[in-house]
């Protein structure tokens, strides 16, 4: 699993080829929005998602979600909502898990690695399309 807490993590993963440049840009925009909503006084380079909820990008070999403070098994995760993201020809399901009033963990699940049981469950969820068009910056909107 790739765990993203800082913008440096995004850059490192992109340089290593673990995520596409388009997905890296998605994460950078999302982190910028979260920083502005949560800690506008600090620079993006200093912003850390550790206490706000990290991004976890699952890989095919992942069996344990405890590294991002979630139940061990993906099947035991009960997200508050699910969205679908298509970026650079890849499809991800984003599971938003509310851990506390201050922490929302976002699990990026690539469509290509899902087990049939998870795929069936996701097909039954009301998943909205997730995009990067956040509208006018002056509008009140969700930072995620």
General description of the model:
The two termini are 20 Å apart. This protein has helices spanning 7-15, 21-38, 116-123; strands at residues 2-4, 55-57, 81-87, 90-100, 103-110, 128-129. The protein is globular and about 45 Å long. Helix 1 (7-15) packs antiparallel against helix 2. The chain is built from 3 helices and 6 strands. The chain is an alpha/beta fold. It has a 6-stranded mixed β-sheet with strand order 1-2-5-4-3-6. The chain has one domain. Helix content is 24%, strand content 24%. Mean pLDDT is 85; it is low at 134-141.
Question: Short summary of the structure?
Answer:
This protein has 144 residues and is α/β, with parallel strands linked by helices.
Keywords:
globular; 144 residues; alpha/beta
What count of helical segments does DSSP give? 3
* Integer count of domains: 1
Helical fraction: 10-25%
Instruction: Report the major sheet.
Output: 6 strands, mixed
Instruction: Give the overall pLDDT as a whole number.
Output: 85
Distance between the termini: 20 Å
If strands are numbered along the chain, what order do they take across the biggest sheet?
1-2-5-4-3-6
How many distinct beta strands?
6
Strand coverage percent: 15-25%
Radius of gyration: 15 Å
List the helices and strands and how they pair.
Elements: E1 2-4, H1 7-15, H2 21-38, E2 55-57, E3 81-87, E4 90-100, E5 103-110, H3 116-123, E6 128-129
Helix pairs in contact: 1-2
